Amino acid sequence: HLNQGMALVHVYMDGSVLVAHGGTEMGQGLHTKMAMVAAETLKLPLESIFISETATNTAANTSPTAASASSDLNGFAVYNACKELADRLQPYRDRMVGEPFSKIAKVAYLDRCNLTAAGHYCTPDIGFNWATNEGLLYFYFTQGVAIAEVELDTLTGSHTTLRVDIIMDVGRSLNKAIDIGQIEGAFAQGQGWSTTEEFLYFPTTGRLFTTGPGNYKIPSAMDIARDFRVELLEGADTSALKTIFSSKGVGEPPLFLGASVFFALRDAVGAKRRQEGVDAPLYMESPATPETLRMACEDQLAQMVKIPQALKDGKTPFVIRI
């Protein structure tokens, strides 16, 4: 039931268009994409489209802005409303070829043409029967691939991400600049999740210790790849996509690509272990913090400070000699 969206579109006599839809703009560029959908459908310049902030008195019973589906749901709802208006206005455009849209809209109003339309969209063909294991969970899939190159300081465990290459299939992008920005942001979030964002707890109380920016380390500017390259897949056949203008959702799918940094670091640790003659299996948990990376190298210094298992069990006093 959450796979539905709605929109309300008004055309004014001065040629401007006001669009209200059910998605929440939180910096991801949703309003821009919705304005572009309206402009394309009504064949108007983008400057003529205005977005009304999301409110339940204009767009009721909206679905959450989540799961990378907001452009799909609200975009098609905006399209349906604008397509209805475009069909109503087409006879006036045919009679007034070359006239500005403001004059066309005014003539349509004086002719008592309804210049308001509501649009609704529900994702087709989805539904899953868990009892029979049949059906379609998702309308489509968003694919991508990433390659990361890292430099690991085996003495301290710190690392530098030298280069990242990403290619993402987002169908026919509604806005390439926005989609590339979403990919970059999702990758950085995934990189932080797999390398720096560690949960630590107080051993006596079990209370979470890493609760603020002083302890919980999200990615910063210095964590971003020195050479960061993002491309959108071009030339793919999108004719089978029944989405708005054959686009695909892009907000969350690239997140796990950030784990490519983790796997690159794991390969770097493996190279150091082979250099040290260590052939034991490498077990490395995420996130790959400097402590985890340093101790995983298994060189002479790591062996000198490694705490014996008996000490962890509280059975044997010990002395560390360096």
UniProtKB/TrEMBL annotation:
Domain of life: Eukaryota
Protein name: Uncharacterized protein
Organism, scientific name: Coemansia aciculifera
Organism ancestry: Eukaryota, Fungi, Fungi incertae sedis, Zoopagomycota, Kickxellomycotina
